[in-house]
Design goal:
11% of the residues are buried. By secondary structure, the protein is mainly alpha-helical. Helix 2 packs antiparallel against helix 3 and helix 5 packs across helix 6. The protein is elongated and about 80 Å long. It has two domains: 63 residues, no CATH class; 120 residues, no CATH class. The structure holds zinc ion (ZN). This is Transposase.
Length: 199
């Protein structure tokens, strides 16, 4: 919220807000008074609207919302409601839980909030996340990152270059890194469920 205060100061929004508070419609007594107050409000409202409708403030608000427990829980519940009761099974990567390592959870990154809420509100399956972000879900071979113009790797994109892969054959072998990892985790979770480890 510090950023908000700073920007408010820069745009002199506090002055406009004070003007609005001073000329609140609720306290008017006569007709002329009402008109005067209305004119003052109109004066300030343009600046206020421009400030509060800016894209960055929406982003900041969403970011703040996302950090409140109630909104997080709401997100998980909404996701659950999009499916019929007891039909959604979430496959969640085990990264950060310290499963199978001697570190025992000391190097946990990210957080456990999603896993905890998912377990509370539905069925969730903890899946081994190993190599899911570097494996092609169609053929199981290792993916490559394409190069950018300058010669640096584009790490946000993953492409399968295995000639016999079905995705290469139909020329749709490039995926987003995160969606690819999510697909792999889902596939592996399905494999765990039916007893057929596929990846
Ligand atoms: Zn492939």
């Amino acid at each position: 919220m510090k950023k908000l205060q700073k920007r408010k100061k820069a745009a002199r929004i506090s002055d406009s807000e004070a003007l609005l508070a001073k000329n609140a419609m609720t306290f008017c007594t006569t007709h002329d008074d009402l008109l005067a107050r209305y004119a003052k409000t109109q004066e300030a409202s343009a600046a206020l609207q421009a400030f509060y409708a800016a894209p960055w403030i929406g982003r900041a608000r969403r970011f703040l919302d996302w950090h409140t427990p109630l909104v997080r829980e709401g997100m998980v519940i909404q996701e659950q409601r999009r499916h019929k009761p007891n039909q959604l099974i979430r496959a969640i990567g085990n990264c950060g839980s310290g499963v199978g390592s001697r570190i025992g959870g000391h190097m946990r990154v990210g957080g456990k909030w999603h896993r905890r809420l998912a377990q509370r509100h539905g069925v969730s399956l903890i899946v081994n996340e190993h190599r899911t972000s570097m494996t092609c879900p169609f053929c199981g071979s290792r993916i490559m990152h394409p190069k950018k113009k300058g010669g640096r790797l584009n790490l946000g994109t993953s492409a399968c270059i295995n000639g016999s892969c079905p995705s290469v054959k139909i020329s749709m072998n490039t995926f987003g890194r995160d969606s690819l990892a999510a697909t792999c985790i889902a596939l592996r979770g399905f494999g765990q469920l039916v007893g057929h480890p596929t990846l």
